[in-house]
Amino acid sequence: MRVLVGITGGIAAYKAAEIVREFTELGNDVRVVATPNALRFIGAATLEALSHNAVSSELYSDIPEVKHVEMAQWADVILVAPATASFLARTVAGLADDLLGNILLAATAPIVIAPAMHTEMWLNSATVANISTLRSRGYTVIDPSVGRLTGADTGVGRLPETAQLVEATLATLEFQDLAGKNVLVVAGGTREYIDPVRYLGNKSSGKQGIALVTEAKARGAKVTLIAANFDFSASDVVTYRVETTAELISTIDGLSTAFDFVIMPAAVSDFRSEVLSTTKLKKNDSSRMSLELIQNPDVIAEISKVGKARNNSLKVVGFAAETATGIELTQLAKSKLDKKGLDLIVANDVSNGAAFDSDTNSVLILGASISEEVNGSKREIAGAIFDQLLKLP
Ligand code: CTP
């Protein structure tokens, strides 16, 4: 296993030597990236001797090697220990002002973060919010343990024991239960143009789609994403950007991969304008305007029908956005599950616009013999969907 150990500038940095040693003893290839502040607490020579590799610290050294990308792609897993409060804030902000920050932004490998700091800093609402954001983005954060701190006091904030950190880091790699699976995620919201500048659209942010892509990648799948009107890029996710339902359909038709799972949280516009004006529509004297709409095809029903005729092990997951709760929500979702020929449907109540653009949601996952309620981050919901998919016959 190729383990990249990131070290930031806190007193617990001295314990990183033991962590590096433990990884190498277990037969892993280890490379260390220490921030310049980390090297105030621990010497590069110690880390180089224990990792059998040079320590990288500077962004502007070895430029021709494009180190941040090379190291990000090299790593099977990244552990940052200790992670300072400042490092957490920089990571949440997506700052790339040092080598470690650049590597984290470029990496697609699982990232484990072990914060260590004084109790008050750990409990500060800024740190609490940063930890929650990092978790919702899929980072594994290991809570600090309770015990003696740098000064005479004790409390929560200590870097956990080396064995716990090493075990938690390697465990992220054992969970590759989607290895070998080809996953297509179709997400976002389509737009239907009326004239060159106006369209009918919806509030979908694409966040559930990004969570599905991130989860699938972390569990070892090969992922293709069709992103309707939101931005996403990751070096190892084939991504197609579309605007309209017609573009979405032609992109799907052009895919040659045989998928195992197709998951579609996309809010597809049910209707499009019958005529598309090539010039900007003008106000006329009337105070009213009518727009004739025609129905779009049901994309997921077609994927299910055509895809399963070619490959009967294909599993298709749809979403049902309803303004209903309880038994009514279940019934509406069940009827979509059957009508569209789906294996699973993920239903949620979108009354008052709930769920759109949010990082959390509350859903019901339904299948022929499955009914599971999940409340949590969109990443947790993505995890539950894949868990259920893997249990299907
Ligand atoms: N869907 C689709 N093509 C459409 C409409 C929806 O593929 N033309 C997909 C969505 O991506 C989602 C599922 O069907 O996975 C359910 O979408 P939803 O908007 O809840 O349902 P509709 O089929 O549009 O039905 P209604 O709007 O009448 O509730």
Count of DSSP strands: 19
Count of helices? 14
Query: Whole-Å distance between the termini?
Result: 32 Å
Shape label? elongated
Low-confidence stretches at least 5 residues in length (pLDDT < 50)?
none
- Coarse structural class: alpha/beta
Describe this structure in words.
It is built from 14 helices and 19 strands. The protein has about 400 residues and is an alpha/beta fold. It starts with a strand and ends with a helix. The model has no long low-confidence stretch (mean pLDDT about 95). It binds cytidine-5'-triphosphate (CTP). Cytidine-5'-triphosphate binds near residues 266, 268, 299, 318 and 321.
Notable features of this structure?
elongated, alpha/beta, 35% helix, binds cytidine-5'-triphosphate, 8-stranded mixed beta sheet, 393 residues, 14 helices, 5-stranded parallel beta sheet
Topology:
Elements: E1 2-7, H1 16-25, E2 29-34, H2 38-41, H3 44-51, H4 67-74, E3 77-83, H5 85-93, H6 99-106, E4 111-115, H7 119-123, H8 125-136, E5 140-141, E6 145-148, E7 154-158, H9 162-174, E8 182-188, E9 192-193, E10 199-200, H10 207-218, E11 222-228, E12 237-242, H11 245-253, E13 261-264, E14 271-273, E15 293-295, H12 299-310, E16 315-322, H13 326-339, E17 344-349, E18 360-367, E19 370-377, H14 378-391
Helix pairs in contact: 1-3, 1-9, 4-6, 5-8, 10-14
Bound molecules: cytidine-5'-triphosphate.
Cytidine-5'-triphosphate is lined by residues 264, 266, 268, 270, 296, 298-300, 318-321, 336.
